[in-house]
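Protocol step 4 of 5: obtain the predicted structure for the target chain.
Materials: sequence only (see below). No template structures provided, no constraints applied. The aim of this step is simply to have a reference model before the mutagenesis design in step 5. Sequence pasted as it appears in the construct record:
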Amino acid sequence: MLWWLRVNIAFGINTPIPVNILCWNIPPDLLGRFVTVLEERGVPLAQHSYYKKWLRYYVDLCDKYRLEATSSKSQAQFLDKLREKKQTDWQIKQAAHAVSLYWTFRGR
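Step 4 output (C-alpha cells):
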C-alpha cells in the first residue's frame, strides 16, 4: 500500500486516499496531538483527512530528504514540491496551514 501512495505522490495523482493508509509511519501519539490541534483550531471534521494527508506527505518529504521538520526551509521545499506536482493554490494553502498547525506542538 505504501508503494501505491508513493506512486500517487510521484505522479501527482490527485485522488482521495483512505485514512488508514495516510497515517502509516506517523506515530499514533503524534497523530493524536495533531487531531487535537485541528479540533482546537476549528478545522472542520470533513477536512481532517486532507490535513492528515498533508502532514503525512510533509513528514515523508522531510524523512526522504533528511530535512528538519520544524524548519521553515523544509516547509518551503514541501510547498515547492506541491507546486511542481501541479497542486492547486487552495491545496497548497491548506497544506501550508497543516504544516503550521503541526509546528504548534512540535516546537518550531
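Step 4 remarks: The chain has a mean pLDDT of 82. Residues 50-108 form one domain.
Proceed to step 5.
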